[in-house]
Structure to design on (203 residues):
């Protein structure tokens, strides 16, 4: 039995070899090879990682509770002009979804994160951006990892790592990343100032 293709590119069988058969097979194989290479190129992913450190005189336990465990309660109260509300879908543990709804007038309406790890004993927290204006069609994913470590003076060294994975060879817009980090640091500083002014909160 020999393979052949009709005018609709549907494979059929014949009882006798046809010279055109080999040409058709060759053309289809070359086309398939091109499509495979083109598809592989289009989904090429590139990961870029940024690491930042911040120091504070506030203890890791208090910062972790304010910024992570009870952020959905505290942050909308401290900066209502920026954050309207924070919702948690689930029990707050790994696999839960956290939705940050921004105030009216903000460039962003909301962002949605998936909590990947949360450990109050080691003060570690990791989460992935899964939906919202912060995830463009050029990004496959954005993963964040936070570690609060005790400093020599009893305060905190906050280590924050963010990994951006782009699709299709797109170049990461580092200026937008910088703006995002400045906003995150601004929120961090607001919470830190509140804890310093209220030493009994989360003590």
């Amino acid at each position: 039995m020999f393979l052949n293709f009709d005018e609709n590119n549907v494979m059929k069988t014949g009882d006798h070899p046809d010279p055109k058969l080999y040409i058709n097979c060759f053309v289809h194989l070359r086309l398939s090879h091109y499509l495979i290479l083109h598809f592989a190129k289009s989904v090429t992913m590139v990961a870029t990682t940024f690491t930042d450190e911040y120091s504070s005189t506030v203890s890791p336990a208090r910062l972790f509770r304010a910024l992570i465990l009870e952020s959905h309660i505290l942050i909308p109260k401290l900066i209502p002009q920026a954050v309207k509300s924070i919702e948690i879908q689930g029990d707050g543990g790994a696999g839960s979804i956290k939705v940050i709804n921004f105030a009216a007038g903000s460039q962003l309406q909301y962002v949605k994160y998936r909590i990947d790890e949360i450990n109050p004993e080691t003060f570690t927290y990791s989460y992935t951006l899964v939906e919202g204006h912060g995830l463009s069609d050029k990004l496959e994913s954005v993963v964040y990892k936070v570690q609060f470590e005790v400093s020599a003076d009893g305060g905190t060294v906050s280590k924050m790592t963010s990994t951006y994975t782009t699709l299709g060879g797109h170049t990461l817009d580092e200026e937008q990343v910088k703006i995002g980090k400045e906003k995150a640091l601004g929120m961090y500083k607001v919470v830190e100032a509140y804890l310093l002014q209220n030493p009994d909160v989360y003590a």
